[in-house]
Amino acid sequence: MNFANKISTFRLLSVPFFISTLIYYSPDRDILRFLALGIFFLAVISDAIDGYIARKTKDKSKAGLVLDPLADKVLLMSAFICLYFINTGVKFPLWVVLIVISRDLIILLGAVVIFIVKQDISSSPTRWGKLTTTFQMLSVISVLLKLSFSYYLWWLAVAFTIISGIDYTIRGFKILYAVDNSRVIS
């Protein structure tokens, strides 16, 4: 396992600790909100670091193609769900959570279908996907910080989530329905 994959694994393993701090949060234990923020921020930094290392060393692996986006999706979906149910002073509306989760589930389902049909999956993040992840992460941080302008960030996150969801769906259909000349039987 290369170093970038170890960092992605760390990010994935940090999710239960992040969730735990929010589950046990209450206004009289506000330190847990800051602990959740610290864990989330560390995960965000680790996402940037593992991406940088993988690009710089050109050490990309099949495990990394799965681990990195999986860690991002598990972290972000957990954050959006927790910050809907747990009111830290600012919380996500249900419609924001549903849009974020629906997009990720559609992408995951599409990847599974493509893998089943094509027996291969190679994906790379798009500009829209990177903007989506960035604004979703900023939204979570702003909610944990109880910033009054958090709703502006989650509106941007929702806009990019929808745009990237459409973009990934179009790309998925192109991959799924592309002619595979090596498998055509004449």
Structural summary, described in words:
The protein has helices at 3-23, 31-57, 62-85, 94-118, 127-144, 150-177. The protein is built from six helices and no strands. The model has no long low-confidence stretch (mean pLDDT 88). The protein is globular and about 60 Å long. With 186 residues, the chain is an all-alpha fold. Helix 1 packs antiparallel against helix 2. It has one domain (3-178): Up-down Bundle (Four Helix Bundle (Hemerythrin (Met), subunit A)).
How many strand segments?
A: 0
Low-confidence stretches: none
Number of domains: 1
Name the overall outline: globular
Q: Largest sheet, if any?
A: none
Fill in the keyword field for this structure.
Four Helix Bundle (Hemerythrin (Met), subunit A); mainly alpha; globular; 186 residues; 6 helices; single chain
Produce a short descriptive summary.
The chain has 186 residues and is mainly alpha-helical. The protein has six helices and no strands.
List the helices and strands and how they pair.
Blueprint: H1 3-23, H2 31-57, H3 62-85, H4 94-118, H5 127-144, H6 150-177
Helix pairs in contact: 1-2, 1-3, 2-5, 3-4, 3-5, 4-6, 5-6
